[in-house]
Structures are given as C-alpha cells and as structure tokens.
Design a protein that fits this description.
The chain is of the alpha/beta class and about 240 residues long. The chain has 7 helices and 9 strands. Helix 2 links the parallel strand 2 and strand 3. Helix 1 runs parallel beside helix 2 and helix 1 packs parallel to helix 7.
Length: about 240
C-alpha cells in the first residue's frame, strides 16, 4: 500500500508492556523523522512491577507507575511531540472507535488516517480491535502476537471502506471464537499466571512492527503486510 508522505496520522498504541514498550521509543523517533502531522496516544492500565524488569523496557525507578504514562512521558518530550496517554485498559469498542476517529484535520488538505498498534497478549482485545477495524473506513491495524520464542505481526489496511490487506482476525479466524477475559476482568491469581514469553521474542516482534511503521511513515510504501519470526532460530520472514 502507498501512504502520502504528508498525510496526517493518528497512532493509538494498545499495550505498553512486553512488545509495546520496545515499539514506543522508536515510534516517537519515526514520527518525528517523518515530518508529517502525527498524534500519538499510548494506552495501558497496567502498573510496572519488579517482575516486569526481566523482559520489559522499564527500570527500577518505574516500579509502581503506570506503564502508558512512563512510556509517553519518557519519549514524547524528547522529540517535541505532545504527551498523550490513557492509564486504563481499553476494553470498550466505542471508546476505541472514538480514540481512532479524527476530530481535526491537522492543517492538511489530505484526509487523515488512523493507525492502531495492538501490542496485547489476549484475543479478547484482538476481537475488539477487529470489530472497530470493520467500522472505520480508513484504518491501518498492526497486530503483534508472540509466544516464548515465535510469533507474527500482521498489518490490516482499509482505505475508503475497502479492505486492501486482511487484519489478524481474517488471517487467524479461530481467535474470534476465543472466550478469554479482558485484563481488567482477571483475578489476582489469574494475573499471576501468564503465557511464557522471552525478551528476545518481544524484541523480535517490536522490530517487525517498527519496520512496518518505518516503511509506512518514512517511505510511504508498505510492501509486506505479514511477518513471522523465531527468536530461537534468529529468523524473520515475510509471508505472502
């Protein structure tokens, strides 16, 4: 797909932990380097804990702070971009829809487009993102998912109401049948149990997301919409 180099974008990142925490610093840098009108909003209701320091992009001074706030405040000001964050889990379709829609034109005659980055670890949130993707006419939805060593990044694209590239739920329709809970619905015991992930897999996933963002925002041309990877095999490849 092609994206005009001066087309305004609004970027909403859902999840500032395992993968999102490595995407966000580079996202601000790429947005700054692109020279295009950009608005970035980070959303996550989670708090930094000691255990997060093992594989997430936080330091001891962040413990007890909201993840979205830490990431937004740390990196937005460095590049002169307005600091915007939501210290809550986004679990409502209408709320996400309202976040992604445009309420101003950013001084450009070009029609703006929204970019949703899903750095979540549950399919309930992916179902919500997929439903909002279907409702919007112009949206780019980049979803990242991984296990301990392997994963994939899929970019769904919709322009003027036409699906140009399928979103993650169309590639993996079984996730629409998932009945797991939203993060805020989990008990303390359930929260303490999570699928194994490694810092290597999180960094691989973030690299794939960053690569897509670079080609979209800097070059205005994304040729590959699906990437799979294995951090154990040191392998990353595009899928037709």
């Amino acid at each position: 797909m092609k994206l005009s180099l001066d087309r305004p974008v609004k970027i909403v990142v859902i999840g500032a932990g395992g993968t999102g925490g490595y995407v966000i610093p580079h996202l601000y840098r790429i947005a700054y380097a692109s020279g295009r009108p950009c608005r970035i909003i980070i959303a996550d209701g989670d708090i930094v804990e000691q255990k997060n320091l093992i594989r997430q992009n936080f330091a001891e001074c962040d413990i007890g702070e909201n993840k979205a706030q830490v990431m937004a405040e740390r990196y937005s000001e460095v590049f002169g971009i307005e600091t915007e964050y939501i210290p809550d889990f986004i679990e409502n379709e209408q709320q996400l829809f309202d976040l992604l829609k445009f309420e101003r034109q950013y001084g450009s005659s070009l029609k703006p487009i929204s970019i949703l980055i899903g750095a979540v670890d549950n399919n309930r949130s992916r179902i919500m993102c997929n439903n909002v993707f279907k409702k919007l006419d112009d949206i780019i939805y980049i979803d990242s998912g991984n296990g301990e060593f392997t994963g994939q990044v899929i970019c769904g694209v919709k322009m003027s109401g036409r699906v140009i590239s399928k979103p993650v739920a169309s590639v993996y329709p079984d996730l629409l049948k998932d009945t797991e809970k939203f993060p805020s619905e989990l008990s303390c015991a359930e929260r303490s149990v999570s699928a194994p992930q490694s810092i290597a897999a999180n960094v691989f996933a973030s690299s794939a997301v960053i690569s897509m963002l670079y080609h979209l925002l800097i070059e205005g041309n994304l040729r590959n919409n699906r990437i799979t990877f294995s951090s154990r095999k040191l392998l990353m490849k595009t899928v037709a």
